[in-house]
Amino acid sequence: MKEKSLSAQLCVVGGGIAGIAAAVTAARNGVKTVLVQDRNVLGGNASSEIRMWIRGACTQFPQYREGGIIEELALDNMHYNPTLNFSLWDAVLYNKVVAEKNLTLLLGTTCIGAKKEKDKILFIEAWQLNSYIKYRIEADYFADCSGDSVLSEFTDAHVMQGREGRAEYGEEMAPEHGDSGTMGNSCLMQLRRAEKAQRHIPFPFEREIPASLYKNRMQLENPELERENFWWVETGGTKDTVYEAADINRTLVSDIMSVWTGIEKKNPDLKWELDWVGFLQGKRESRRYRGDYVLNANDILEGRDFLDGIAYGGWTMDDHDPRGMYADRPNVNYYFKKPYAVPYRCIYSENIGNLFFAGRNISVTHMALSSTRVMATCGMLGQAVGAAVAVAAKYALSPREVGGHIEEVQRILADGDSFLPWKVRKTSAAMRAARCNVDGVLPRMTDSIERAVGENDPVVTLKPSETLRFTFPKTYCKGIRIVFDSDFARSETKDIMLSFFPMQCFNAAGEMRMDTPSSLVRDFGVAWKGVSGKKEEKIFGNFQRLVVIPVGEKIEEISFCGLASHGGGDIRLYSLDIIE
Questions:
Q1: 18, 118, 200, 209: which has the fewest Cβ within 10 Å?
Q2: Are 345 and 293 in contact (CB under 8 A)?
Q3: Which residue has the higher pLDDT, 214 or 491?
């Protein structure tokens, strides 16, 4: 057996949306990072292997669409994959990770052990299937973004599993007594239209599923399939979704194929055919770590703010019955009036001194998990972990001690365009002292929310080739930070499902397309005057909302000139600032 050792400041276990966001954010902030993913593609439940679309707060609260890494991925997908092909989506995620110089990616690599001394993890062991290499990965900090809290298998990290009783956290909608039930798993399938009726020949492993199980989800005669991804073919919540995962998966593969057989049997003239079937189940719930705070349903229903808030949620409390589609009422939604904050204390372990976590395994009750588990929220949590690790590494702090520097963590998140509804990003001292050649620009950009929220939209609108010039006292500039308008409202998107996130998850008819927003600036130039003279950089073909141009010297003037947007209209700018 060949063995290899790696050493890093951060080791992230799990390459779903949360793990990607954690690893990329840490790496961008100078943290040497290793990302370990047990599959050969990234994305977890959002990958081509499972094909669940990314969802978050904007389904209930459109103005609170998640920014940061989540918005970057959305814009990447519109640019590289406008027809929303799932294999190209895998490539979008892969590209986001391998682009980071401080980040080492290990695909097809499963965590199989860990060594702990006192209250800290020293290293993990991992097995890479296709190379037969056993890795030993040492790190100062570890982030478990596996969903299943895999590092709890090899440490005594405190975890929670199942449903809390009603009295434990005062959650009125919780069961009267706690139990081991969880939300179940699903295998998805995709359909495509056919020119004539197609008949799927049943496999011997299929079984007949009673039509009564469909009654709360769809009609068997004349089914409406245009928006159907069959997420409700769900089971496993009455079993252990970790240790009995293989048995659950076997049942789901049979169930999903059997459902399609049943639909075709009732509709022999149906002009749809089976295009893709998932053989890897998507999990909603398994084990959750216990942190210094356990977010509960009351926090969510009240829309609570926290001084140490590092992310927010807005998906309904969407609680699935452990019996899945075998329950009379497979899921119940509990609505609330505004987004809620997730405190920093929910993303690190209460008893392991160098363990972070992000995703569906954070420190929440079962009821709270029914909202926080969706992937856009998980991506925000991952970005928060990456920012927290950057602060921890900078000052040699434990995760708990980072809580004393929470404003710095929040600043890193704001600089990375991860919007927090209860905070505005504070503009640099130099730009607050600047003078601008166009009246009214600086007040709109200074300490701005950098997006439209309700009636408040601080966007600066310019004509193509119009120049903004800022002068200020000479100051060191690490980089010039620019934020454009990527149309968070998705006003050009006619399909409501795609407006939530540009992923196709219901049929493979080839009819859907989502291009870069027309409001986004495509071509522009930036010039600055510093100690080494005047420099200029022109960028053509931009497709991102947040752009950072490296500088690395003292400067006293910046000029910006927008040349063209993707739609050929005005130049829309939310922020131009220096990173000190």
A1: 118
A2: yes
A3: 491
